Amino acid sequence: MKETGNDKKRRGRPKKNITEKVSAATAIVKRGRGRPPKGQAVTVKAAATQTTKASSDLTYKPMNAWDSTKFNKKTIFSFSEGYKAFMNKAKTEREFVKETIVLAKQKGFKNLDEIGNAPLNPGDKVYRVIKDKLMLLSVIGSKPVEQGTRIVGAHVDSPRIDIKQNPLYESTDMAFFKTHYYGGIKKYQWVTIPLALHGVVVKADGTIVEVNIGEDEKDPVFTITDLLPHLAKDQYEKKLSEAFQGENMNILMGSEPLGDKDEKDRFKKNILALLNEKYGIVEEDLISSELEAVPAFKARDVGLDRSMIGAYGHDDRICAYPAVMALFETENPEYTAICYLTDKEEIGSVGNTGAESRALENFIADLCALTSKGPYTDRLVRASLDRSKMLSADVNAAYDPNYEGTHDKMNAGYLGKGIAIMKFSGSRGKSGASDANAEYLGEIRKLLNDNNIPWHITELGAVDKGGGGTIAMMIANLGVDVIDVGVPILSMHAPFEIASKADIYAAFKSYTVFLK
């Protein structure tokens, strides 16, 4: 490294170091020999202040959210009940959007695409839905939209088992659906559990039929079978990644025949007959369907103290639901507040319902056009994006003491310590990351501290152990300041993920103060 002028030795008598300065100045004051030399009195005062701080709050130590004097257990539990009830009705991205539309209309939100070119005024509430799987909601602020917005963005898709387009077959007097898993899953976690079928089937005439089998207590459920341990010698000897093959994860649909015993495909035909009876569909209709197999069990309290919630789809509806609720709490904000709910995050945020789409840009462009006092130009939306700020509301991996070595404990997410802030995502050398700038991190940290909301700084895992990403990267590419702020969970991407009720409430409070 090249030596600089400041690194070179000074000629002549060496200067006193700071300790000598403080000692000399203190001695002068104590002897009462007049006023301390210029500048040294300030040094003494600063040293005294630093000494006081060293004994109290110089160190960083995140608090447990349950210890917060600003959090009320009754309020935390009440908010969690609302979340569980919503989750039981919204196990797919389509269902999340559908249920959110119902709540939004109750709160006075209007469909932006149905109001025409009517101007929008501060306090107005609007929403937009794209392909029934992406949704944007907004409360218009007092400042012009081109001066920036405040966005909380989350994704509403979750890892699952998708049904193939030509799925139904029979083998050894049983009928099965062929599948293709969606997102990053551990395949072994999805076998031998009760599954429900959710989704839509588009018939030949264009009619859309909604399917939901397995949630009602009177409904049948489905499952993927596994090998008994008595005969699993070869399976045990394989790598975990090889012991369960995706192509063999076929869902058991039935075992009762239809028609004469000599008739071909009579087990398959019985399933088709039942589907036709209930939904009026034929086998070809399955080609134009989106059917998802999800865990059939409901969200439940976990622990004797009921302090946690176990559910399918915490990632990322545990952040999306508080984001929606926070926007509903937002009235007459200074900056236009936006809740951005995307699809396809688990497979890269692709497509016209993912965060890589133009949905957010187009939405902000329309808000600029309908609120601007002058003529609309493309510069308005560019200026708005450059001045906007966003919280990428996505989950983080909570440290699990049963699996040592996966995290750097000093920078890990923890259950019960409030909202998890993640400056950067990605893997290994921050590949595929969104890395927020220090100024924006400082701004968010101050906001949470000023509002007494428990938080802690996190990474997704130890360096070189793996990694992952969120929608933050796509939004940062638009010029928006963005950082990941979400709920830490255990058993991420499993059929039954675990989260602290206090952390869920901390997310709601965080998103609320940010939007306001």
Q: In brief, what are we looking at here?
A:
With 516 residues, the protein is α+β, with helices and mostly antiparallel strands.
Number of helices: 13
Mean pLDDT: 90
Q: What is the count of β-strands?
A: 23
Shape: globular
CATH superfamily membership of the largest domain? Zn peptidases
- What number of domains? 3
CATH topology term of the largest domain: Aminopeptidase
Instruction: Estimate percent helicity.
Output: 25-40%
Work out the strand percent: 15-25%
Strand order of the largest sheet: 1-2-3-14-4-15-21-17-19
Q: Main attributes?
A:
single chain, 516 residues, alpha+beta, Aminopeptidase, Aminopeptidase i, Domain 2, nine-stranded mixed β-sheet, disordered N terminus
Give an overview in words.
With 516 residues, the protein is of the alpha+beta class. It folds into three domains: 5-42, no CATH class; 65-158 and 312-515, Zn peptidases (Aminopeptidase, 3-Layer(aba) Sandwich); 160-295, Aminopeptidase i, Domain 2 (Roll). The chain has helices spanning 18-31, 40-54, 73-89, 93-106, 233-236, 240-243, 266-279, 314-328, 359-371, 378-387, 438-450, 472-476, 501-515, and strands at residues 110-111, 125-130, 134-139, 149-155, 160-171, 174-182, 195-202, 208-213, 223-224, 251-254, 289-295, 300-302, 308-311, 336-342, 389-392, 396-397, 419-422, 426-427, 455-458, 467-468, 481-486, 488-490, 497-500. The strands form four sheets. Strands 1-2-3-14-4-15-21-17-19 form a nine-stranded mixed β-sheet, sandwiched between helices. A seven-stranded antiparallel β-sheet has the order 8-7-11-5-6-10-9. Helix 3 (73-89) crosses helix 13 (501-515), helix 8 (314-328) packs across helix 13 and helix 9 packs across helix 10 (378-387). The longest helix is centred in the N-terminal third of the chain and has 17 residues, at 73-89. The radius of gyration is 28 Å and the shape is globular. The model is unreliable at 1-16 and 18-49 (pLDDT under 50).
